[in-house]
Amino acid sequence: MTKQTHSFQAEVAQLLHLVTHSLYSNPEIFVRELVSNASDAADKLRFEGLNNAALYEDNPNLEVRIAFDKDARTLSITDTGIGLTEQEAIDNLGTIAKSGTKDFMGELSGDQKADAQLIGQFGVGFYSGFIVADKITVESRRAGVPADQGVRWVSGGTGDFEVETIHRPERGTTITLHLRDDAEEYLNAWKLKSLINKYSDHISLPILMEKEEWKDGENDQPGSMVKTGEWETVNQANALWTRPKKDISQEQYTEFYKAISHDHEAPLTWSHNRVEGNTEYTQLLYIPGKAPFDLWNRDKKAGIKLYVKRVFIMDDAEALMPTYLRFVKGVIDSADLPLNVSRELLQESRDVRAIRDGSTKRVLSMLEDLAKQEDKTQYNQFYAEFGAVLKEGLGEDFGNQDRLAKLLRYASTQSDTPSVSLADYKARMKEGQDAIYYITADTLAAAKNSPQLEVFKKKGIEVLLMSDRVDEWSLNYLQAFDGTPLQSVAKGAVDLGKLQDETEKKAAEEAAEAFKPLLAKLKEALKEKAEDVRVTTRLVDSPACLVVQDDGMSTQLARLLKQAGQQAPESKPVLEINAEHALVKKLDGSVHFHDLAHILFDQALLAEGGLPEDPAAYVRRVNALLV
């Protein structure tokens, strides 16, 4: 067939320009990416071969061969994996799914070395070859397809690529890089072997290179290394997680993490265990140091790779880890699951539930170990990145709720940083205090300066400050900690119990009695806005605040639901007034009573981060009084 020329998808052209002009400070990552792709191709053949052994044709061996030609300045990586059809070559090498380039560009930091490490994270690892090559040739044939239906794909990394049909007897793919003048170092066996050992030693299929031996020069010519025609395995060629822990270095664990996560930073911690019993499996689980760009996408695929008896099954086995631990990366290799296990079977399998429970407990144990360290740096780093996601577990994992509650950290009126545990708070509770007090708000500043905290600050009672969007939802599922109830200071009438002396209680009762006529007038004026109006003791400096009934939905949660486009139940807040405040005292008998009442309500709403229902009317009322 004649050659066909195709244009790259616009995003690919943009990416190629970036790769060839910017990401040159760490070019060696192309070896990691292309070997990783070759390994993936072998994994796909293993998986499809479970139901169709004929795909192996006459070659049962799965391997990667790396060769170079100094005279031609080429480096080739050949695998015996699943291969590509012509259409797959056009689709997979000419386009990027799901706007990968857009996400990639958005993540760039300006640190070229770090940016280069990102390239595999967005499914664009193949294009890293253009960092060192000015032309790439791909020859491939898909397993099970006739030999005369092979494909050759060629591009110089500019605006287009050529595709033609070729005769290729062997299945799999050969990627040939035509190296730039400044990439000579990759035409060196020692250099390539060191990169394979650094980035790809964990690959479970053999990576082969042709042996070299020294040959003395003749007639005063210098000696040189020459190829012998024999091929040798240059990696360990067995899965890292199957090796004894004592034989694996910290660097190998770290590089394996980087390979499976496409993260350029080292993980915070990891756990490698073989679990035996009714269900046997090996787990190698990592806690990352940084949150991925799509952490808040709850539909994001999990970071757990599932193997069965060392055969790769799937890349995103979400059934093996709960959603609130979606940041965990790693590998689970089961000895009990069937090789043809499907996603549907994973959801129903008793063995999978046992693996999920065991892996969840292992991750929580890792976090508990971090939290117990005398130096809190690592746990603080973890919590800053993933603490808000961990809180989702309160409503998702009731079996581990107590363990999760101990791992949570919050800011408080005694600490601006989220470093206060519920246990720390309880240990500092005042004598006679019978609840753990907290407040939720849109921001830490709004929580810290809320009028509802005034009496607590006056009496030196610590209040937890919660500003994560998930806090309000998650605390619906945590009613108490270690036998002590959690109490929102924005719900119900404030009751400090034994912390409030009899004199204060009596003064509050007298004020409520004396203000009955005024309260009745306020209720009438604000009947469209407030469910009730009452005198409170919680305010010291502010004239009013808004609260909801004990069993009501907070105004903050109602706002969050509306912002998310969800229906929030209609409910009115309670307006609480400070009988000692000068503004409140001026209300009775004022000719501006109606305007003042509405200003009082709207100011209370503003103080807690809300907006008046009619901002223009609020401004008119304030301006009228100022004039």
Distance between the termini: 86 Å
Helix coverage percent: 25-40%
- CATH first level of the largest domain: Alpha Beta
**Average pLDDT reading:** 84
Q: Give the CATH architecture of the largest domain.
A: 2-Layer Sandwich
CATH fold descriptor of the largest domain: Heat Shock Protein 90
Largest sheet: 9 strands, mixed
Oligomer: single chain
Radius of gyration based on Cα positions: 33 Å
Which strand order do you get reading across the main beta sheet? 1-6-5-4-7-3-2-8-9
Number of strands: 23
- Strand fraction equals 15-25%
Explain this structure to me?
This protein has 627 residues and is of the alpha+beta class. It folds into four domains: 233 residues, Histidine kinase-like ATPase, C-terminal domain (Heat Shock Protein 90), CATH 3.30.565; 137 residues, Ribosomal Protein S5, domain 2, CATH 3.30.230; 71 residues, 3-Layer(aba) Sandwich (Rossmann fold); 125 residues, Heat shock protein 90, C-terminal domain (Four Helix Bundle (Hemerythrin (Met), subunit A), Up-down Bundle), CATH 1.20.120.790. 35% of the residues lie in helices and 21% in strands. The strands form four sheets. A nine-stranded mixed beta sheet has the order 1-6-5-4-7-3-2-8-9, with helices on one face. Strands 16-15-18-17-20-19 form a six-stranded mixed beta sheet. A five-stranded mixed beta sheet has the order 10-11-14-12-13, sandwiched between helices. Strand 15 and strand 16 form a beta hairpin. Helix 1 runs parallel beside helix 4. The longest helix has 23 residues. It starts with a strand and ends with a helix. About 2% of the residues have low confidence.
